[in-house]
Structure prediction request, 516 residues.
Amino acid sequence: MSSKMIVLMSSDGQSFEVEEAVAIQSQTIAHMVEDDCVADGIPLANVESKILVKVIEYCKKYHVDEANPISEEDLNKWDEKFMDLEQSTIFELILAANYLNIKSLFDLTCQTVADMIKGKTPEEIRSTFNIENDFTPEEEEAVRKENQWAFE
Amino acid sequence: MEPIPNDLILEIFSRLPAKSVIGFRTLSKHWASMLRSPVFTELFLTRSSNRPRLLFAAERNGLLCFPDLWLSKDASPVICNPTTGMYESLPDLMRYKNARGFLGFDPIGKQFKVLSEAYPFSDQREHHEILTLGTEELSWRSNIISCPAYDRSLSEGICINGVLYYLAQTLGVPSCVIICFDVRSEEFKYFDAGCFNDQLDDTSGLILVNYEGKLSGINWKYGQAGERRTVELRMWVLEDAEKHEWVKYVYTLPENEVLDSCDFSVAGVTTRGDIVLCMKYTCKPFYVFYFNPERNTLQSVEIQDFGANLEAVENCGRVYAFVNHVEDLRVNKGKQLKSSISQVKHLCSCCNKVSQPDYHYQKA
Prediction:
């Protein structure tokens, strides 16, 4: 029995044919399928091909059925290898998972970044997220003192 | 690359340990206020509730030590949140020698209240006093609705769905009852718990737990299976809350070399239904055991790094384990607790409990 295929189009014009059952792990795509506007393919203006490839890889792995009977433990191990990526790529994945509304991928990518940054200094965090420090040195020191416990 | 929008940064931050979140208040003024906002603290709590942990406190030389905080046992009770390092001293309360305190949470009014035994039952004074946390001025007040008189309380309390339960012994012919205190309405009820009567001599090993939503009592004793000494867990579950019917379950634990040779106590039940046993004293290696009654599996887990200080044999301390610990950033008005020994404060000596809301037991 052949499974229904749909076409996903990345922002940089590349097309990917994917099983519908795999693609609808994205709530965004699932809604479009329901609304029946997928005939000419689904344009994903916010997702570059480099990232879409990873998203599709994830969805294929997580589409668990008789053909792909993978255990939770093996999925967790696979997650670790899958997330061995550059920080900028992981950030792009967060944006894509958010846009495509794939909860488990969103959770995984956010948790991975949280684990990467938890030991970092405020200065490193500001640089990672482009946060401007609008505290004067005295104000910053006051906040630090107030929360001394967190810095020990 | 497109910068990550603030709402997604919040999602990332909500998955950090509490300590990091508090540290990140120094990022900028905007983030200091974002990370304190009710929206974020609720989000953080939701995430934290999905990964409940075991919290350990070790007691040694009169000091109760959480990983970063040290508190000393004294007469004046204190409520503290080890996640944020904040504490509140409770106003002094005249209590009789073996009076207990209980912490409960009203999920509707979202308030913590402390219920304390005060005087032995008499006509002159109220037996209990109540204190609501989070108000400007903390003060004890008498309960309006009287509690049926009992001889003494026999267990620590457990709060399930806004009702505080604890075991007590009746006056006259000794028998066990469960006292129920509705945290919101502050009404007392009680019902029979005669199934625990054969333990009246020594109820110290019995704890009340929330087993899959039902009030239960667990303790253990040694048994015998042929040549071998076994460990038996006995659990009484209030299967029918309306009719107050208890069902007893006895589990003989699978053989485990470490468990069979150490001093342990029952720490509680996780939201997944595992009964947690914990070694009583700090030592190296330190183990915690998870027993699943349905699968009859016993898993031992080594906990590392209590710190060389506590692990040295001559320094061993009594360990208390709190199951289903969830990090909570919501902070009652309170002073910052300094984590150095020179600034010791006091811990509620009656219940040794910290302000982690028990209502998290409901989140499956």
User: Anything to note?
Assistant: Chain A has a mean pLDDT of 90. The two ends of chain A are 61 Å apart (CA to CA).
